[in-house]
Amino acid sequence: MAQVPPPGSLIVADWYQCKESKEYFNKILHKKRRKTFGLLASPMMPPQVAVDTVHYKIFISGKSGVGKTALAARLAGLNIPNMHHETTGIETTVVFWPVKLRESSRVLFFRLHLWDCGENALRRFDHLLPSCKEQVDAVLFLFSFTDRTSFDDLSNQMAKWTGPSVVKVVVGTKFDLYMHCDVAERDVREFQRKWRLPVLRAGGEVSDGLGDVAPILNCLAENLWHQDCVAAGAACQHSQQ
């Protein structure tokens, strides 16, 4: 993976709060709620507004019960299931997120295709993990702040994804349940220092706004775009040589 860019260095992180972004974010909202997009659906912009869409495949990794399905629903603005049940196979969710590039002021729609697969299903069926790895662009590694074993298991999770061209982001779930916290902030800081990966936080409640998902979606978008720029520069340099 290319070196992680400083947050906000490539994209305007708070752009979703700016007045000029409403024209774009209105295409993913309906009555202040997020629209649901199927595999073939996409936001429709007016003909005079040309916006390119970039496509990425994201796999969500983590122990059973850390909240992989809940996070996918959260990022897509869907209802989170009240009862936990193990994902029996592969479930996919499509998330669209408009982003403004800082240097060029260009606006892009990021189409994030989230893949979620149950831990037990991955163990039982050998073909599932290769399917999830195929043409994957990024992995969200999840742990729960209420489950110390899920945090200690992060290194085992990341060992399965050794490819250099995969963006890696760590998300700690159930951060709002601080009364039951089993992972200390000093442990998170030490992990960040050792692995040099961004560690983001997600709670359990879903709000009607975009502020609760913006940090994760912006982080994904920025790191994915940075990796593409590095790859494009390397390809250009190679062709010149």
Structure description:
This protein is α/β, with parallel strands linked by helices and 241 residues long. It is built from 8 helices and 8 strands, in the order αβββαββααβααβαβα. The protein has helices at 22-25, 68-76, 119-124, 128-133, 148-152, 154-159, 185-195, 214-240; strands at residues 29-30, 33-34, 52-61, 90-100, 107-117, 138-144, 167-173, 199-201. The strands form 2 sheets. A 6-stranded mixed sheet has the order 4-5-3-6-7-8. It has a two-stranded antiparallel sheet with strand order 1-2. Helix 7 links the parallel strand 7 (167-173) and strand 8 (199-201). The two termini are 23 Å apart. The mean pLDDT is 87.
Question: What are the defining features of this structure?
Answer:
single chain; alpha/beta; 8 strands; two-stranded antiparallel sheet; 241 residues
Q: Tell me the number of helical segments per DSSP (H or I, 4 or more residues long).
A: 8
From the alpha carbons, calculate the radius of gyration and give it in angstroms: 18 Å
The amount of beta strand, in percent, is 15-25%
Q: What distance lies between the first and last C-alpha atoms, to the nearest angstrom?
A: 23 Å
What overall form do the CA principal axes indicate?
Answer: globular
Order of SSEs, N→C? HEEEHEEHHEHHEHEH
Low-confidence stretches: none
Average pLDDT across residues? 87
Largest sheet: 6 strands, mixed
Helix content: 25-40%
Sequence of strands across the biggest β-sheet: 4-5-3-6-7-8
Query: What class do helices, strands and sheet pairing give?
Result: alpha/beta
Q: What's the total number of strands?
A: 8
